[in-house]
Amino acid sequence: MRRSVFGSDAGADAAARFGYPPDTLALAERRIAEDFLPVLGRLSKGQVRAQRLLSAIGPLSESYGESRFAYNLTQLRLTGFSQQARVWDGRAVIARVDFLHRESRTIVLVDGFSKYADNGVGLMRKEVRQYNRLLELGYRIVRLNFTDVTHLEECATKLLGQAPHLREFIAPRVRS
Fold first, then answer.
1. What pLDDT digit, counting tens, does each position of 113-149 carry?
2. What is the b/e burial string over 25-50, where b = at least 16 CB atoms within 10 angstroms of the residue's CB?
3. How many Å from the N-terminal Cα to the C-terminal Cα in the chain?
4. CA 20 from centroid of its chain's CA atoms
């Protein structure tokens, strides 16, 4: 999806580094409509599941773990999350976080270890400063790792165990 929207992996990386264009989500919807929906209609089985997957994918996931967590939010029917959201303190951007639930002031970070191996101690120090500043501002932060997000039950248990207030934002089940 990211390659389709940004033209290449390098284009997607540049967008992540310098800021996503305001029309990113509209571009993704167009890509889904033009590239994926025609194929969905030709499936002999699995259309419902494929449609659910299409509703959860997007160009803002910067890793498989983030894509999987976005899908988990759909499966858990948790509403109100924004992905790759900037958090301000009134004067400046404190951080861009993986997932933000503004109403409950909850942040979910999907952590991988390779970014620290690739980017060193400097990145870790920067993130510790951001983390502490976010806590000072009253945000609740839930950190999930790859294993957490690849198992729906573990993800739900950890997320709702650390942020039980999110239960208020579970949408009712829709009957077909």
1. 665 556 667 778 888 899 999 999 999 999 999 999 9
2. eeebeebbeeebeeeeeeeeeeeeeb
3. 28
4. 14
